[in-house]
Prior knowledge:
The complex is a heterodimer.
Chain A: E1 2-6, E2 9-11, E3 33-35, H1 37-51, E4 57-64, H2 69-78, E5 82-87, H3 94-108, E6 112-116, H4 127-134, E7 139-149, E8 152-159, E9 162-169, E10 172-176, H5 188-194, E11 199-203, E12 215-221, E13 230-232, H6 235-244
Parallel strand pairs in A: 1-4, 1-6, 4-5, 5-11, 6-10, 7-10
Antiparallel strand pairs in A: 2-3, 7-8, 8-9
Helix pairs in contact in A: 2-5, 3-4
Chain B: E1 2-6, H1 16-28, E2 31-38, H2 42-49, E3 54-61, H3 70-79, E4 86-90, H4 93-105, E5 111-114, E6 116-119, E7 122-127, E8 132-138, E9 143-147, E10 163-167, E11 177-184, E12 197-201, H5 211-221, E13 224-227, H6 229-233, E14 254-258, H7 264-270, E15 275-280, H8 287-290, E16 293-296, H9 299-309
Parallel strand pairs in B: 1-2, 1-4, 2-3, 3-10, 4-9, 5-9, 12-13, 12-14, 14-15, 15-16
Antiparallel strand pairs in B: 6-7, 7-8
Helix pairs in contact in B: 3-4, 5-9
Amino acid sequence: xxxxxxxxxxxxxxxxxxxxxxxxxxxxxxxxxxxxxxxxxxxxxxxxxxxxxxxxxxxxxxxxxxxxxxxxxxxxxxxxxxxxxxxxxxxxxxxxxxxxxxxxxxxxxxxxxxxxxxxxxxxxxxxxxxxxxxxxxxxxxxxxxxxxxxxxxxxxxxxxxxxxxxxxxxxxxxxxxxxxxxxxxxxxxxxxxxxxxxxxxxxxxxxxxxxxxxxxxxxxxxxxxxxxxxxxxxxxxxxxxxxxxxxxx
Amino acid sequence: xxxxxxxxxxxxxxxxxxxxxxxxxxxxxxxxxxxxxxxxxxxxxxxxxxxxxxxxxxxxxxxxxxxxxxxxxxxxxxxxxxxxxxxxxxxxxxxxxxxxxxxxxxxxxxxxxxxxxxxxxxxxxxxxxxxxxxxxxxxxxxxxxxxxxxxxxxxxxxxxxxxxxxxxxxxxxxxxxxxxxxxxxxxxxxxxxxxxxxxxxxxxxxxxxxxxxxxxxxxxxxxxxxxxxxxxxxxxxxxxxxxxxxxxxxxxxxxxxxxxxxxxxxxxxxxxxxxxxxxxxxxxxxxxxxxxxxxxxxxxxxxxxxxxxx
Lengths: 249, 310
């Protein structure tokens, strides 16, 4: 079984991102970048499937400028076999990402696609579902458990009311939630080895998709600050304030 | 202008979230229809027809809908999509699962997690886990929006008189996704996103058993119990308790954060609460920056005392 893992380059999740001075976008200059945490979980899940003998090959793909190769190399160092870099200087929106990934899918014909449920930058939570929709593939989103049995997968999903289990035929698209696994770190020897693994470059223009900024970013601001309240000295004082001042109990 | 709201329900009643989505639809302006997929639940259909400002309830009935698979709902919506300019749903796990599937087929770039409608082309939404608020504008003829329900009121239930129209389901024979089972959390407490009061525990609770300390207080206040991501990741509480960017967004009248440090991604999910109380032994914890009332101390001493004094 071949697995395709699309990944996204985003800010390191420890960095607090702020609006730029002119409030036209966020300030990402000198911000440390990394693989989106949910995509890291997707890479890890694919590697575990290969280690357990269920998968034979893992291909990772990302879309963006030349700096995106850093994240592809990281994925290769973690245990991915091969990387595809779709090159563009544009910052693509989820629908265009899904269209570009669909073209890569058609070329690679994997049996399973595992990807992060959401990028921690735009907070869209769309690409996996759109990608599945364009290709008319079954989708199992927000996965906290994935079992591959022959030509089927069984996926436990984290939903608002608890957990739900779906079964789908392959090929299928799975998007990862936080508790699917805990990703490993790349070892130094593997980082060295990753430099020699194959990395294919494709120009986005050669995929024949029409990149289109359908939704424009007008402004980026900090959220309104909440005023800092007071410290109370005792439980009695807290209960008194909640009853008589805030009037919430 | 015509708006289609994808209605959410549990075969017994309409979700509160759908009422908030209708409120958002009213702010867009235009004719509002609600689409429902049920396993012949007249009760839900009846209820939906009484939501204020709704013109039509479009009802797809099929035994497959006892447990709804996202792809099926998307197919139903697509079968009637020609009539609509807007497709709206809540940013629940159900809405997030389904709407992009519809949007992609219609070549629409969806806009997620809307917290404010400035005009029918301009919206505000949080990005970077709520660290920033983006204002975006769409040039598309048709649009798909998920609504962050805590930022909107609830449309009134009872005053409406919508027409109910039964629709034929598309052919599902080619579907390759099947429902297997679900494990839903059963509780006699209010649901997290609908509760007036929430008592939430973090890593400071130390283990799952200690969450019982929160249950006692929640019982006295008729509150829901929530948890931070750290607590859920550590296995102290189930995933559906999670409040925050990757869990639920809540905005109750009172939010009591116990042993929660206040990571940005947690704050993103609860900082719109009316009154926030923080109980934490670390007086430097960021949660105190957003709390109206902070109490510094050992939660294992403070919680039993609080329970006894409520």
